[in-house]
């Protein structure tokens, strides 16, 4: 039995944490724009982001080149769009170089901040400076601890209820096992602790303060009243209180078969709340994203929690059997094995769905921090699968001594946990898709290939290759025009005339002003006045 469990634990460790669903918000336009030289101040400062920002803990500040703070009105979310942060000037400013310092909390709950340099007037020359943008960093130890405790508690609670309802099928489990009662209450305490302290943790993250200010009443009110997290946290606390009562009456009325099922439903509702907090808030199809995160979390909890119940509760129950202990013991194991196969399938499908949203290209997989962490996680998974298979086949021989390799497997599992925790707070690979090369076939069987390098905000090299229906370079093009237009904003289009020397290859340089989706229309005119048209949609990165 123990040997079999190692294989399941190994496979599970890879999927212990749900994959995130979206990247953090990023700036796609601003007024003033980065490094802009202006002689007339706009009525207000405005910054547009790639996703909605939350109406809490946002700020706009302006500093002169000497570090003096310029007085402006408090920042507000635009009435026109929840993606725009703005603030009006309180008066005029002297000529000079200035920096706009901004900070927001994106819809997925992650704080980001940055600066935008600009120049007012002609008195000083403004050398190009970087428009800095900083996302939330790696999670601190308290964040990792609370997240881990919450997932483990979910697993322990659902696991023991699953053990009672589907494996043992005996409502007297908690009456027969004092260990099971203690196990249940400790699991509840862990879940309650992790959820309760997630509020002050959220204060420290969103407000950018230390734990000495984590229980500041004004900060807590702002989190509860002005963030997505706050409303869900209140619901979670109410559900926790209800769960406490149901568990209490379940233990006092062991013959009541409906109370364990009700407890399971209540815990599942807490998982829905958990799935609704974070990156799922930033995806287009939020309902599907929450559903997939919930299924991922539920199947994880049932799998790991079932294993925990088998290891902690089952041996004691088997020892109390008056008849064949071995038959009882292995019948429970066999039931769980059939369920475990289903849990693995759900974990894989939900994990694939989430992963496909974050890594758009091979370049982003190899060159971004997110992609590299994901590769590290896959590598660790392979190590754990090998160790798990070793223990599985060794377990078939019913050998009791698994040796030091078990410790190695647990060590690898701990590293996988750390990598998974880092992935939840790292900017996803969507922010850096890398150079793009796309090919389309026109109605006349001409092949049009578009290449954009490095495919990020700033200077880019645009190249278009056109081949005829025989695969040879199309050399009879008199003029090639491309029109580039951002799809995420109302920004103006960019029109380019590409140059070529009758080789079928046309190149130009252009500045892409913002990240996100762009529509690129290619229009070629031949010597015989025939048209060659192709429309591309590309994803431009911000780094």
Can you describe this structure?
The chain has 543 residues and is an alpha+beta fold. The chain has 4 domains: 27-134, Immunoglobulin-like, CATH 2.60.40; 136-350; 358-431; 436-540, Macroglobulin (MG2) domain (Immunoglobulin-like), CATH 2.60.40. Helices cover 45% and strands 22% of the residues. It has helices at 2-14, 141-168, 173-176, 178-196, 198-207, 217-226, 228-252, 258-276, 286-312, 314-319, 325-355, 362-367, 369-396, 405-423, and strands at 27-31, 36-38, 44-49, 59-64, 69-70, 76-77, 84-88, 96-105, 111-120, 133-134, 436-441, 447-453, 458-467, 477-486, 494-498, 505-512, 516-526, 531-540. Strands 2, 4, 5, 8, 9 and 10 form a 6-stranded mixed beta sheet that branches. It has a 4-stranded antiparallel beta sheet with strand order 1-3-7-6, with no helix packed on it. The protein has a 4-stranded antiparallel beta sheet with strand order 11-12-13-16, with no helix packed on it. Strand 14 and strand 15 (494-498) form a beta hairpin. Helix 7 packs antiparallel against helix 8 (258-276), helix 8 packs across helix 9 and helix 9 (286-312) runs antiparallel to helix 11 (325-355). The longest helix is centred in the middle third of the chain and has 31 residues, at 325-355. The model is unreliable at 1-22 and 398-403 (pLDDT under 50).
């Amino acid at each position: 039995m123990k040997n079999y469990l190692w294989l399941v634990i190994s496979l599970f460790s890879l999927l212990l944490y749900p994959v995130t669903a979206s990247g953090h918000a990023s700036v796609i336009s601003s007024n003033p724009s980065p490094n802009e030289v202006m002689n007339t101040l706009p009525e207000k400062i405005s910054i547009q982001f790639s996703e909605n920002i939350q109406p809490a803990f946002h700020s706009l500040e302006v500093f002169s080149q000497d570090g003096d703070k310029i007085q402006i009105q408090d920042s507000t979310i635009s009435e026109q769009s929840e993606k725009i942060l703005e603030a009006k000037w309180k008066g005029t400013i002297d000529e000079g170089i200035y920096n706009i310092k901004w900070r927001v909390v994106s819809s997925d709950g992650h704080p980001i901040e940055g600066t935008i340099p600009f120049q007012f007037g002609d008195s000083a020359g403004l050398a190009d400076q970087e428009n800095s943008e900083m996302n939330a960093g790696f999670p601190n130890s308290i964040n990792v601890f609370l997240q881990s405790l919450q997932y483990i508690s979910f697993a322990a609670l659902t696991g023991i209820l699953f053990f009672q309802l589907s494996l043992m099928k005996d409502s007297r489990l908690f009456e027969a096992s004092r260990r099971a009662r203690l196990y249940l209450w400790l699991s509840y305490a862990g879940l309650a602790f992790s959820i309760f302290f997630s509020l002050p943790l959220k204060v420290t993250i969103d407000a950018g303060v230390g734990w000495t200010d984590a229980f500041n009443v004004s900060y807590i009110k702002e989190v509860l009243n002005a963030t997505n997290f706050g409303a869900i946290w209140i619901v979670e606390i109410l559900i926790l209180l209800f769960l406490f009562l149901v568990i209490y009456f379940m233990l006092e009325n062991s013959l009541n078969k409906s109370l364990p099922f009700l407890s399971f439903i209540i815990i599942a509702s807490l998982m829905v709340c958990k799935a609704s907090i974070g990156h799922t808030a930033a995806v287009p199809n939020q309902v599907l994203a929450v559903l997939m995160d919930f299924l991922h979390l539920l199947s994880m909890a049932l799998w790991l929690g079932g294993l925990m119940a088998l290891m902690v509760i089952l041996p004691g129950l088997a020892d109390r059997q008056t008849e064949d202990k071995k038959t009882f013991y292995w019948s429970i194991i066999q039931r769980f094995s059939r369920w475990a196969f289903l849990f693995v399938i759900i974990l894989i499908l939900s994990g694939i769905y989430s992963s496909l949203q974050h890594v758009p290209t091979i370049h982003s997989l190899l060159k971004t921090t997110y992609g590299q962490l994901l590769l590290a996680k896959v590598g660790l998974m392979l190590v754990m699968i090998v160790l798990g298979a070793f223990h599985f086949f060794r377990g078939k021989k019913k050998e009791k001594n698994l040796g030091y390799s078990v410790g190695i497997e647990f060590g690898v599992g701990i590293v996988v946990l750390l990598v998974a925790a880092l992935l939840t707070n790292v900017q996803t690979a969507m922010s850096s898709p890398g150079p793009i090369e796309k090919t389309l076939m026109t109605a006349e069987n001409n092949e049009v290939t578009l290449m954009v390098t490095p495919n990020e905000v700033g200077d880019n090299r645009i190249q278009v290759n056109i081949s005829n229906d025989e695969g040879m370079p199309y050399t009879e093009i008199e003029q090639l025009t491309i029109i580039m237009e951002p799809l995420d904003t109302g920004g103006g289009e960019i029109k380019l005339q590409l140059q070529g020397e009758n080789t079928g290859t046309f190149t130009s340089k252009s500045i892409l002003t913002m990240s996100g989706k762009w529509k690129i229309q290619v229009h070629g005119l031949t010597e015989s006045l025939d048209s060659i048209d192709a429309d591309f949609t590309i994803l431009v990165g911000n780094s």
